[in-house]
C-alpha cells in the first residue's frame, strides 16, 4: 500500500499537465482536478454542485448527463441509464443483472459474448463500458474547462472487492473516454491518503474508514505512522507518512440503493392497494416511484 501512496505522488509529480481524480460512485461522481500551481479543486457540475449524478441519457437526439439524465427517466424510461456500476463486467446470467433489472427501467439485453448491453428506445445497443466512458468524458470536459487545457491523465476509485474483470472494465471505459489511467485506487485508501495529507502522526494511529455508499457498505482499517526524514538525503527535508491498509470489510448487499428498492416496494404496494392497478408493468410509473423513493 505504501508503494501505491508513493506511486500516486510520483504520478502527480511527473505528470506534465493536469491530473483528474474521479471518485466513481454508483449514484454520484465526485471529481477533482490537480494542476501544478493551481490550488486543489473539486469540480463543480453545471449547477455549481460538488457532486454529479452518475447518469447518462438521451432526450430524443440530445445526450444528457447528471441529474438531467436521471430526471428524464419518468418520461423516457428506456433512455435514462443510472446505477450502471452494478453491471460492470458482469455476465448476462448473473445476480447483478437480476438486481439491476429490479431497480432500473432500462432495457438490458444479452450480447453474442454473453455479456450485457443496454438498448435504447431507438434500438441502438450500448455496452456498459461505452456508457461509463460517456460519463468520464463529460467529467473530462468539466475538468478541461476548469484547467483551461486538455486533460489526459486520470486516477479513478474502485471498491476494494473489485475483481480484475471489473477493474479492466473501468480501464476500458477510461480509454474510450480518451483518458489515460494513472492508477485505480481503492476508495478507502483514497480517503486514508487524503486524511494523512494535512496531519502528522508522532505516535502510530489506527483508524476505521467507514463508507456507506449506494451499492455497498465498506470499512477500511488503516494505520498512519510518521517517519522522520533522513538527514543524509538532501531531498527528504520533511517527515513522511507511512500508510498501511491492515484490512477491509464490506457488504455488497447493503447500501443506499437497497434501501431505495425496499422503500419503493412499500410504495408499489400502497399504490396497488389505493388504485387497484399493477404499476409494475408501467415503466414510466416505476421510474417516477424510483425517483420518489430516492428523494
Ligand atoms: N441520510 C441518508 N440516509 C440514508 N441513505 C443516504 C443518506 N444520505 C445518502 N444516502 C444514500 O447514500 C448514497 C449516496 O452515497 P455516496 O455518494 O457515497 O454513494 P456512491 O459513491 O454513489 O456509491 P458507491 O460508492 O457505493 O458506488 C445514495 O444511495 C443515498 O440514497
Ligand atoms: Mg462512493
TrEMBL record:
UniProt GO BP: endoplasmic reticulum unfolded protein response
Gene3D superfamilies: 3.30.30.30, 3.30.420.40, Actin, Chain A, domain 4
Species name: Grifola frondosa (Maitake)
Leader sequence segment: 1-17
InterPro entries: ATPase_NBD, Hsp_70_fam
Highest taxon of the lineage: Eukaryota
Name listed for the protein in its UniProt record: Heat shock protein 70 lhs1
UniProt entry tagged with the keyword Endoplasmic reticulum: no
GO molecular function, one term: ATP binding
Keyword Transcription regulation carried by entry: no
Amino acid at each position: 500500500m505504501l508503494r501505491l501512496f508513493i506511486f500516486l505522488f510520483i504520478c502527480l509529480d511527473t505528470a506534465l499537465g493536469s491530473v483528474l481524480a474521479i471518485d466513481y460512485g454508483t449514484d454520484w461522481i465526485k471529481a477533482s482536478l490537480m494542476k501544478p500551481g493551481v490550488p486543489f479543486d473539486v469540480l463543480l457540475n453545471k449547477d455549481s454542485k460538488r457532486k454529479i449524478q452518475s447518469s447518462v441519457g438521451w432526450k430524443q437526439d440530445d445526450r444528457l448527463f447528471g441529474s438531467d439524465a436521471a430526471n428524464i427517466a419518468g418520461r423516457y424510461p428506456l433512455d435514462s441509464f443510472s446505477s450502471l456500476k452494478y453491471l460492470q463486467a458482469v455476465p448476462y446470467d448473473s445476480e447483478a443483472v437480476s438486481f439491476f433489472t429490479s431497480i432500473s427501467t432500462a432495457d438490458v439485453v444479452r450480447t453474442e459474448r454473453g455479456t450485457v448491453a443496454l438498448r435504447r428506445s431507438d434500438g441502438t445497443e450500448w455496452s456498459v463500458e461505452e456508457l461509463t466512458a460517456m460519463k468520464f468524458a463529460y467529467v473530462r470536459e468539466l475538468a478541461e474547462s476548469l484547467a483551461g487545457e486538455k486533460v489526459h491523465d486520470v486516477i479513478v476509485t474502485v471498491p476494494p472487492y473489485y475483481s480484475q474483470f471489473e477493474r479492466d472494465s473501468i480501464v476500458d471505459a477510461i480509454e474510450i473516454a480518451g483518458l489515460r489511467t494513472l492508477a485505480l485506487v481503492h476508495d478507502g485508501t483514497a480517503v486514508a491518503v487524503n486524511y494523512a495529507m494535512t496531519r502528522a502522526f508522532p505516535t502510530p494511529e489506527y483508524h476505521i474508514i467507514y463508507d456507506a455508499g449506494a451499492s455497498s457498505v465498506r470499512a477500511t482499517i488503516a494505520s498512519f505512522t510518521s517517519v522522520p526524514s533522513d538527514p543524509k538525503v538532501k531531498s527528504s527535508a520533511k517527515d513522511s507518512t507511512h500508510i498501511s491498509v491492515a484490512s477491509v470489510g464490506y457488504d455488497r448487499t447493503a447500501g443506499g440503493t437497497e434501501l431505495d428498492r425496499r422503500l419503493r416496494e412499500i410504495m408499489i404496494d400502497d399504490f396497488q392497494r389505493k388504485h387497484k392497478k399493477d404499476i409494475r408493468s408501467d415503466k414510466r410509473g416505476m421510474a417516477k416511484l424510483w425517483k420518489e423513493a430516492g428523494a
